[in-house]
């Protein structure tokens, strides 16, 4: 079912994806080849272009089908790429989208400054809308995402991280950008507040579901499929929902055993395999899957105010695929 759904989505968005790729290259507009090389290393890897697609589709559902939506949608891919460049430096990540992380190929200061350039480029493109509400959304996104990364860094390595704290982090690090991409499409269309709110709520729940699915894949997918080493979050000291829930429900002996695995100087394949088995045994994987599915349902409910249409059908399919995907 997953492959079939993926193929159906790709067929629907094929033309838009081609236009987005062209716009990403055209709008990069750097005077320095080095900046283009570093940005392109991440931008033109295995990105799904989910955020630009959400902006374009949301705008169409609200009655806006101007070609400018393609150029404008690149704002959210540039913002996403900028945060990934910065996050990989902060986390010391080795791989991203199936390739060596940028800071392993170029000097770290150059990678950080390239991320800064992409943030600035996003604001420059957003300013072309002439809409203060759009600028406000973009500025709030950058503010919230920075705070989310700081909060996660501050809590790095904590074994008592609560589900609420985890939710606060993923809201700021992931959901806020997807939510903003959806809301901006409605703003661009001049939609009424009810439609902007509906798309905002859809984006929030989709973003949460998407991140929970990512956190599950970090324990269940292989490196080739995932595009980075499995267990990367754990190696970087990040506790995510599957582990938080398992630690909460495990008996004292198994909880202590899991904590020893987490604190191990080197997370070997055997240790990681044993840990995943315990996450499964104590319901961490199942619980996270159910929570993600509930957010998908909430996302679909949020857009029920819209009449049936092609864009609405696509948003529904994207919500389903968020938790069914393998990568």
Tally of alpha and pi helices: 16
N- to C-terminal distance = 15 Å
Low-confidence stretches: none
Shape: globular
Strand order of the largest sheet: 1-2
The average pLDDT value, as a whole number, equals 90
- Sheet-strand content, in percent, reads under 5%
How would you classify the helix and strand content by structural class? mainly alpha
Q: Could you tell me the radius of gyration in angstroms?
A: 20 Å
Largest sheet properties: 2 strands, antiparallel
Helix content: over 70%
Compute the number of strand runs: 2
Describe this structure in words.
The chain has 327 residues and is mainly α. The protein contains 16 helices and 2 strands. It has a two-stranded antiparallel sheet. Helix 9 runs parallel beside helix 16 (310-324). The protein is globular, with a radius of gyration of 20 Å.
Give a brief rundown of this model.
This protein is mainly alpha-helical.
What secondary-structure arrangement, pairings included, does this model have?
Layout (H helix, E strand, L loop, with lengths): L1 H27 L4 H11 L6 H12 L6 H24 L3 E2 L2 E2 L1 H4 L2 H20 L4 H23 L8 H26 L4 H28 L2 H4 L5 H4 L5 H9 L2 H12 L5 H13 L2 H19 L7 H15 L3
Antiparallel strand pairs: 1-2
Helix pairs in contact: 1-4, 1-16, 2-6, 3-4, 3-8, 3-16, 4-6, 4-7, 4-8, 6-7, 7-8, 8-9, 9-15, 9-16, 12-13, 12-14, 12-15, 15-16
């Amino acid at each position: 079912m997953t492959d079939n759904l993926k193929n159906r989505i790709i067929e629907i968005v094929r033309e838009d994806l081609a236009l987005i790729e062209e716009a990403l290259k055209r709008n990069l507009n750097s005077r320095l080849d080095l900046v283009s090389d570093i940005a392109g290393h991440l931008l033109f890897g295995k990105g799904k272009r989910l955020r630009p697609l959400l902006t374009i589709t949301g705008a169409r559902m609200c009655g806006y089908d101007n070609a400018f939506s393609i150029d404008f949608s690149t704002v959210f891919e540039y913002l996403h790429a900028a945060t990934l460049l910065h996050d990989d430096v902060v986390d010391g990540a080795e791989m991203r989208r199936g390739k060596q992380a940028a800071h392993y190929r170029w000097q770290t200061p150059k990678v950080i400054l390239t991320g800064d350039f992409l943030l600035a480029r996003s604001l420059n493109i957003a300013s072309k809308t002439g809409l203060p509400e759009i600028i406000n959304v973009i500025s709030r996104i950058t503010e919230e995402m920075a705070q989310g990364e700081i909060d996660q860094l501050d809590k790095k390595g904590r074994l008592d991280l609560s589900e609420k704290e985890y939710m606060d982090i993923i809201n700021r690090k992931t959901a806020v950008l997807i939510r903003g991409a959806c809301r901006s499409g409605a703003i661009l269309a001049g939609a009424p507040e009810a439609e902007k709110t509906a798309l905002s709520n859809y984006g929030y729940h989709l973003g949460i579901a998407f991140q929970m699915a990512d956190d599950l894949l970090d324990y269940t997918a292989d490196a080739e499929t995932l595009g980075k080493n499995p267990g990367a979050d754990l190696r970087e000291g990040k506790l995510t929902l599957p582990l938080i829930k398992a630690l909460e429900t495990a008996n004292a002996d198994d909880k202590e055993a899991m904590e020893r695995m987490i604190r191990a100087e080197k997370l070997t394949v055997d240790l990681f395999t044993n840990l995943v088995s315990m996450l499964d045994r104590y319901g961490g994987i199942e619980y996270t899957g159910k929570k993600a599915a509930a957010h998908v349902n909430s996302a679909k409910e949020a857009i029920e105010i819209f009449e049936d249409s092609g864009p609405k059908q696509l948003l529904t399919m994207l919500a389903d695929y968020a938790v069914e995907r393998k990568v």
